Amino acid sequence: MEVGAGERLQAVKVAEHHSDNVLKMTKQSKEENRAAYETPETKYTRSLAQMSASCDSRCVVLNTGARMPLVGLGTYKLRGSEQVHRAVDAALAAGYRAFDSAAVYSNEADLGRALKELMPKYCLTREDVFITSKLGPKDQGDRALEGALHSLSELDLGYIDLYLIHWPGTQGKVVDDKRNPGNRAQSWATLEDLHAQGKLKAIGVSNYTLAHMKELIQSCKVRPAVLQVEFHPQLCQTELRRVCAEYGVCFQAYSSLGQGDLLTDPVVLEVAKKCKRTPAQTLLRWAVQQGVPVLPKSSNPDRIKDNAELFDFSLTDNDMDTLSALDCEHRYCWDPSGVA
After folding, report:
1. What CATH code would you report for 56-328?
2. For the chain, what are the domain ranges?
3. What are the DSSP calls for 118-149, one per residue?
4. Phi, psi angle pair for 303, to nearest 5°
5. Residue 166, marked binder
6. What's the whole-model pTM score?
7. Which residues does the annotation mark as catalytic?
């Protein structure tokens, strides 16, 4: 018996509807199966992939929605208005738009002054630069408000893009002092208030261990945007990175060159030779290729420029694995693991 055109059209619509439902059910089933059987390792890998997808080649998107450059100028040991001005000028010329300072660096005022003087030279406004500073350990606890307001005053840039608790302990107290957790909590509550007021656009921590991070995440009202710690091929901090990825905290590196010692490591030299890049560029690329922001520090204009040239080459998977295999949990800087 011959089927009419109207009946054929209705049959097609029914088939398409059934097909759509099957696809939706299949997709839902796959999502449910993935959630049921996903291991911590695969979840970590997926979180990293999602974070990488939220990054363009030169910045990372924080959990506040702000975009933070992957490369910033570290200003530790930059002292005096002349040296700071020269370094900031070279950095801006080389394309840097992020600058990392701290109360204990004693250069916040010089950095703020240099930026205000130099931004017009490069046709930049305050919104074009990303400024990080940090609460000094001497201000941990009930002096946190005073310390943060002092940083804001010294920089004199209207607001601070990212403000970190520099150290989990308190200056003048032994590392295992039982008052340290309470002081950290008081400092964080102060930073949360200033964040709500818009004076600190994002807040985070530095030198926190896995235990310190879990403590903070469980108690905070505002989740930290950044954890800044020592990170290089000899200190890969895999578990700490996993926790940061799980909770949407940007993991940021300092001391990427191992205080200069890694620049002469034979493995680093071999990879650098293969890439036709400097050892410093190779080590910095190893980090940013993983989506980890870096803060190379230098007062030398040529090195400042070289350290920013990280986005016109990449390391092979084998090169990445070779460098990561150097991991031996070796620290060149401060060890916060004993801080209560």
Report:
1. 3.20.20.100
2. 56-328
3. HGGGGT--GGG-EEEEEE-GGG-STTHHHHHH
4. -70, -35
5. yes
6. 0.84
7. 105
